[in-house]
Each structure stands twice: as C-alpha cells, then as structure tokens.
Design brief:
5 domains; metalloprotease; Immunoglobulin-like; five-stranded mixed β-sheet; Peptidase_M1_pepN_Ig-like; Zincin-like; binds zinc ion; 27 helices; aminopeptidase activity; alpha+beta; eight-stranded mixed β-sheet; binds arginine; Neutral Protease, domain 2
Amino acid sequence: MNIAANPMVEASQTIYLKDYQKPSFLVDAVELDIQVYADYTQVGATLKMQRQTAGDLVLLGRDLELKSIILNGTELSESDYQLDSEQLRIANAPDQVTLETIVIIHPESNTQLEGLYQASSDLFVTQNEPEGFRKITFYPDRPDVLSVFTTRVEADKKYPVLLANGNLLETGEAGEGRHYAIWQDPTKKPSYLFACVIGDLAVMKDHYVTSEGRNVALEIYAEEKDIPKCKIAMQALKHSMRWDEEHYGLPYDLDNYMIVATSAFNMGAMENKGLNIFNTSCVLADEEYTTDAAIMRVQSVIAHEYFHNWTGNRITCRDWFQLCLKEGLTVFRDQSFSEDLQSAAVQRIDDVAVLKAHQFPEDSGPLSHPPRPDHFVEINNFYTATVYEKGAEINRMMSTLLGKEKFRKGSDEYFRRHDGQAVTVEDWVNALSAGSGVDLSNFLTWYNQPGTPKLEVQGEYDAAAQVYRLNLKQSLKSNAKYPNLKALPIPVALALFNAETGEQYILQSEALVENSVKDGVYLFDQAQASIEFSGITAHPVVSLLRNFSAPVNLEFNYSNDELAFLMQHETNGFNQWQATQTLLERILLEEHAADTYLQAMKNTVPALIEKDPLLASRIFDVPSEGYLGSRIDQNYQPEKIQQQRNALLDTLARELGAFCKETYLSLDPDMQQDFSQAMGVRALKNIMLALMARQGDAKAFELAQQQYHTTRNMSERLGVLRVLVWNDAPQAKAALEDFYTRFKDEALALDQWFMVQASHPKATAETIQALTAHPDYDLGTPNRIRSVSGGLNSNPVNTWSFGVQHFIDLAKYLDEKNPIVGSRLLQVLSRWYTLAEPQRNQVQAALLNLQSVVKSKNVVETLNSMLEV
Ligand code: ARG
Ligand code: ZN
C-alpha cells in the first residue's frame, strides 16, 4: 500500500548521500554584528571566502530580509544574484571574495525555537544545529565549512548578559542605553556550533585546571532563583572534564566553558563550542525539586554535551548523513561515564530499556532507517533513537570486541588523524581499525542497514563427550527499500553455568575472541555458525548476550526454570534483570503461567535488597504497556495488554503480601552511604507502597500521606503522590493542591504535576481536556506539551482512543508554529497499522485527513513515511 499524498513534491525535496559534493567556497573568517531591538534584530555579516571548486557561490538563507549586499567593495543589485526562499546564488564569483550582508530577522516572533529566538521576556538564545544558522544570516550553512567566528553582540542594557563563543575581546557603551560585547572563537568551526545569548541571567562560577595545566573558567547561567539548583550540573561538568582526560586522553582546549539554561528549548541541550545551551530540564537539579531519574539525566546530558567538544566539535561531520558519527559515539561515551557514576549494571539496564522501548519499535515500523540514513527530506526528523541509541550500540559492540586497551589505541588514532576536520563514519571505523590493529570494516554494515536482527540460538549438550554446542542463525526482516541485507558482525558475550551447582564454567573454546574483557565473547558474523565448548561436566545453563552485547532480538528456547535459575545465579546484573524481563514477556504476551516468576522473585528479592537495593529496584521492572504493544505486529489490542499486565501486578502484590509493608517500613534512604544506593532505596519504597495500595491496604494511603508531608525529596514526594492520585485515594485531591501551591513557580516540578494527572491509569479525554485548558498549560513551551502528551501516552489504551485526535491536533497546530516538535509528537502514532480493526481504519482515516492540511517538510515527511506501510 502506498498512499503518500504528493510523492512528487516529496521526491523533489529528497537529498541523497550519494549526491554529496564539496562546497565551491570555503570561509576563512566571519565577522558578525548582531543588534537586538524590541521588534527586530539586525545582523551584519562579513565573510572572507576562497574558492575551492568550480561552481556558483551559494549562501543558504531562510526568512531573512536582505537590506544590502556588497561583494569585494561593490554593492550588488538584484540582477547580480538569484534569491529564492532558501538560498542566494552568485554566478561567476571571483576566487577571493569578501562578502558583506545586512539582514533583518525577527527573533521576537520566532516560535520554531530554531535560529535566534526570544525564549522569554528576558532572554534571547540560538539553536543552530542542524540548519538554524541560515535563519540568522546568509551563509554556506553546512558542517564541512569551518571558519573562525568573531561576534559583536549589541542590545539594550536591560539585558546585561551578552555571550558568544570563544574569548571575550571587548565590551563597551553603544549609546541610547545600549551596550555591546565582542567575542572571538579561535577554533575553526561549522556554523551549526555558533551560539549567542542576550539576556538578564544570574551566574554560578567555578573553575577547572586541565591535565595540561590550563585554568578554565566555568560558568552556568540561569534565572537567579535557580542558581542553587546548578550545583549538581557544575560537579558533573568538572567530573566529565576529568573523565575525558582519564579515559580518552582528551583535555579541554579553551579558557572558558559556559552553559546557559532556558525553559524554551526543543530538545535536551546543544554542544555549541564553549557555550552550551541547555533545556532547564537537563541542567537544573536539586533533590527538593528534581527526581532521582532526572538528576541522573542531568549528569548524563552535561557529560554528553561536554564530550561533544571532541566528538562533534574538534572533529565534526562532513554532512548530516553522518550525524550518528558524532551522536552515536558521544552517547556511548556518556553512557560509559554514567556507568562509572552509579552501578554499571543498572546503568546498562536503564539504557537497554530505553533502546528496547524506543529504538526497537522505531526500527520495526515505517520510520525505520539505517543509523546512517542514505536520504532525507528534513534532517531534523533524523535526531532519532536509531541515530543516537543504536549508533551508541555500534560503538559499544566495537569496544566490547576490542577491549579497553585496543579501543583506546583506535580512538587515539582517530583524534590524531582527524582533529580539525569534518569527516565520515568510514573515517572513524578506519582509524579505529588502524589504531587497534583489528579490521572492523564489516561494522560499517551496521551503520548502513536498517532493522533489528533476529538472533536464533539453539543449545545441545553431549553428556558423554562433555561438550556443549551452540547453533546460531541470524536474519533480518526483508525490506523493500534495502533489498540486499547482509549478515552483521554480532558480538555474543556469554557464560555457562553448571545447572546443578550454580557455578560458572571457565570457558574453553577456540571460537572466543581474545580481548581484555573477562567475558567470553564470540564474534558471530555469518548467517549461520556452530561453536563448541569442551570440559562441560554437567548440564549447563547458558547466559547469552551478557550486558546486551549486541542490539538484536534473541530467541533461545529457555525453559521457565532456566530463566528462574539465571535470576538467581547469573553474576552479570544486566542478564539477571534480562531473565526477569524474558519471563515477564512470556507471561504477558504468550500467556505463560506466572508461578515460576513469582517463586523466583520470592527467592531472589530479599537477599538482593540487602546487597544491592538499586539493582533490586530494577528487578521489579515490569515491561510497560507501550513496550509490550510494540512487540505485536498485527491485531494489537491495547486493552488486552492492559488487562494482562494489571492482572500480573495484582498477583505480584497479593503474593508478596506482608513483605511489601515490612520492607517499606524497614527501608531508610538516609542510612545509605552513596547517592545511587539511596536512590535505589527510594525507588524500592515507592514500589512497595504501590504494591500495598494494589492489595487494597488502606494503610498504604496513610503511609503515603505521611511520607508526602515529611519528606523534602522529590522522588519520595512524587512517588507517593502517584500512589494517592493513581488509586483515587481520599487524600489525593488535597495532595495535588498542596503540590501545586508548593511548586507553581517551579516550571519543571509543575511539569510533573501535569504528568501525574495525565498518566492516571483511568485518565479520560476530559482529564486531558482539563489539563490542556489549565492556565499553566502552554503550547509555546515544549516541556509543558510533553508533560501532558507523555503522560497520556504512558497509557496506550488512551493513546489509541481519544489520544489519536490529541496528537493529530498537536501536529496540525505545531506544523507551522514549531514543526520540529510537531513532527516528533506525531511519531507516537507510527505503529497505527498494527492495531486490530476497527481502530486501525479509524486512525488511518485521521492520518489521511491530516495529510491534506499540513505543510512543513518535517510533518509532511513523517506523515508520508507513516502512511507508506
Ligand atoms: N546535538 C544535540 C545533542 O545531541 C542535539 C541537537 C538537536 N537539535 C535538533 N534540532 N534536532 O546534544
Ligand atoms: Zn549529542
């Protein structure tokens, strides 16, 4: 079925990787003069350019009002250039060009939050990745044009803070109550890394001395009242700087590093050179206002943006098809950082849970694409779980295979070869191969192919010969757009346990890869293979894909008892957790009985709570309804999944009975030495209380109310607010009112207030209606939209009933106002075609309807792909 409304229009706008051409001109230096006024901004630009190849001089520009243009001293008239809505083109330009332009732009009415925009009454910021700079001035706005930027920013003195990348050269008076600052960034960079900030903000200052002895001034800018909430971010920044020196040999290279927080931001944060701009949700962190999960996220995003300084900024992408070069590698780096911050196993559990909940469904539906796509209409649509998370997995696989030392030799070689360049995925894999001495070129297949491979494994034990054999087979679902799918190199980390004693065998097999990791790793790179282990004295239980060594769907015919065995005996915390998840998927999707799982929980949990409360809290994970739904490819009935899952939780609550109350009362987060275990205790307490409430224990509400009023910690407060609200406890209304009063001036905490209500298990269309009609609801703030929409979407029964219209209306409204966010929200409906009738038809009709009214490349491309199933 292909029902794309206007494939011609889309086809003509498609950009292909194979068409890449070098830019005809390079920019040696650029001077910007940005003058901000209340109702317009004037941008002057002087570009010193040099010809590189034959062809017209092409400058990209969108929504710019051109006032004047001077080439090598001569003012051009309209007949000297061609100007359309996307570019300015000059034919027969000389080889050396100095081009001066003046344009007028309107940040004060820019709702798309791209380019320069007014984020609040006291703040203007930029977001230029990937293609926002062309909304500021005419420029060869592409990542393979690197230049030295000098920026003059001028504004009214009611905005005391004037920032741009690099070093501050000069400040001064500009008359009529105005002032200016001039900044220069000595490092050559592409335009997407340019940033400037004009505003009235307070600042937290600190400093850091690099391994080379450079004293770096660190500054975090935020609203005055939020400055105390910047401590955790500042600590994380210093920690990241040290971590990159120790693990990759990469010190910071400028004398200052600035972070600016804004509540109006489309994404998480942006790595602009020396001047990161962050969504407040990824920088403000304080126990009283922020949940533990959000605090962990702040630390990982701070690290992520910092790590981009080398993987992204010093070495950047040749073109946007290579986005996963910088994002996949940087996510892998921030995940490794977070593994060092808390428990490595739990960090891995959380990262894999995200991968499976977002990337796997994306890759099995109509929006599936290779980590390095080969075509796109709107590159903003490709900041996806596949580019980021699957991109990270590819790097993790190569690192697992090489082991730490060789991986480091490979990355050293990459920085040695390519510092200061704009490169491709091939350059990365080649450098990694050359530096490590291991040929990794077949990993390029992972970058170039879509889809999650299926890995089918069978085990055979020959007791007489004491040999255990594994037969492996890999396959990919055929894909019309990618007809020649190749076998992928899949590192399979594995262990064998003696089923009788529970002890782990020391593996003897020539098939295993030699690396510095202590796990046995087998590199499976054929369509089929068999491997043998000798000296296996008693029947073994095999644990496969330890630590999730490859992003694949594993099929192995474990008995439920073997999975219960792994829950108790596996020493790899990740695979211990994975065993619970595999059991639960069988119970919830294949209607297996729950008894083995319940018994294994009773056997495992008490000791684990003593030993590792954080891991214990994850052992209680039950796959979400959304994730379970994504495992179903046709005739999906969200209500059925909901009933199954609720029934399982009811049984778990009943079976654990008194244990929940005892455990709740015995746990005290303040007794824990470190933050991560205290976080585990808080999570466990909330789980215990939720299970008590499920048993109908009225004491649960009393305890919840008590905890609500005695704690100062957001995870504790929000955990019990959920218990009260989601169970319609008599105390719920007062608690919600109290929460609102306490936090009405704290936007991020208020987001949680919206979210708790939107994700009420029995939320109705009226619930959502009331929330979106609330005076604090704001369609101009992506965080607030996401708090309600995300809450709604935590219940797929709602998503696929009244939620369909909710998401379609948002896409329609945001199509013009903020197409980046509009397109993202629409993606929630991408698996519509898996629904059972009549829902499937209804959603399809609604999507077709939307197709006739939307115009942005973002929403149109997403919608067309969604309908091409
Ligand atoms: N490079 C940023 C990061 O990953 C994300 C920027 C996304 N921007 C966008 N318009 N999609 O840290
Ligand atoms: Zn990034």
